[in-house]
Design brief:
171 residues; 5-stranded mixed sheet; 2 helices
Length: 171
């Protein structure tokens, strides 16, 4: 239970959300993020990529990122294609809308090993993406209250920015 009295961990749904028609919709491409104080149903497709969903139950502001690679090495352009950049940017944009970090709750999805050629590797790209997200959330003291990560199949994800619900369908 969160201090606001709302729960977040029980909001991961196994069937499509019923209030979708009341929400605006958005599609999140790899390397992007979406933050809103309004009601949005944000959809994305994940393979080895990871999406971190953050929700503030006090302000009812939520956001999601979709990153492809774990860490920006310092060469080239620092973009939300990298987990360390995407999570920091998500936190910054949520704060800009009035969310406070100590209220945030996290869910994480993706990180599959969808290519058969890499399945024998213990430390494939999906695993690295999961690990960086876990490390960054832990370092920011943001509880991870729900997740569907790893495996060998991609996922379709719908995240609601206003109430923190998430719907996941294996592909």
């Amino acid at each position: 239970m969160h201090p606001s009295g709302k729960t977040y961990s029980d909001r991961m749904q196994s069937s499509p959300p019923s209030r979708t028609s009341e929400r605006a919709t958005a599609y999140l491409h790899p390397g992007q993020l979406w933050v809103s104080a309004d009601s949005y149903a944000v959809t994305t497709i994940l393979g080895s990529c990871v999406a971190v969903c953050l929700w503030d139950p006090v302000t009812e502001i939520g956001g999601i990122n979709h990153f492809l690679l774990p860490s920006f090495s310092g060469e080239g352009i620092a973009s939300p294609r990298f987990g360390n950049i995407a999570i920091k940017e998500l936190l910054d944009q949520l704060a800009h809308l009035g969310s406070q970090k100590h209220n945030l709750l996290a869910k994480m999805f993706g990180g599959a090993c969808v290519l058969e050629a890499f399945r024998q590797r213990q430390h494939h790209l999906g695993t690295k993406n999961i690990e960086i997200a876990q490390e960054l959330l832990k370092s920011e003291s943001i509880p991870l209250v729900g997740h569907d990560v790893g495996g060998q199949r991609g996922r379709k994800l719908i995240f609601h920015t206003d109430d923190g619900t998430a719907w996941v369908k294996p592909l």
